[in-house]
């Protein structure tokens, strides 16, 4: 689907109501066992450091990310169901329940993470707008 010009530099397509929780469209997240994503809208152009993505992320019970991560884009995360813990199973620092929200600028290290019971989250990912060269 082509990008809608009304979204400006965020190359998102106009989509009306659809079942975002259906089983179609999920794919494994490379490098993370038991973690899947479903892109709801948008795309990144990593070379140009532009774009925005809205996605669902679901973690199976027992899934983990064992090392902290950081990335080039901004990130907003809202837990919809289940729970995700900061730390490792041997050293749980904090368990976050549905309703928990985070917003991060680029390059902020976060993690490690794991889940006892699985979780579903919605994520808003975007490169910060570049200043106009004046």
Task: Give a concise summary.
This protein has 134 residues and is an all-beta fold.
What do these coordinates show?
The protein is mostly beta strands and 134 residues long. The chain has a single domain, classed as Jelly Rolls, CATH 2.60.120.10. Helices cover 0% and strands 46% of the residues. It has no helices and nine strands. Strands 1, 2, 3, 4, 5, 6, 7, 8 and 9 form a nine-stranded antiparallel beta sheet that branches. It is globular, with a radius of gyration of 16 Å. The model has no long low-confidence stretch (mean pLDDT 92).
Please provide the count of β strands: 9
Q: Helical stretch count?
A: 0
Form type: globular
- Main pleated-sheet profile: 9 strands, antiparallel
In CATH, the topology is named Jelly Rolls
Oligomer kind: single chain
CATH class, anyone?
Mainly Beta
Low-confidence stretches: none
CATH architecture: Sandwich
The helix content is under 10%
Strand content: over 45%
Jot down its keywords.
134 residues, mainly beta, Jelly Rolls, 9-stranded antiparallel β-sheet, globular
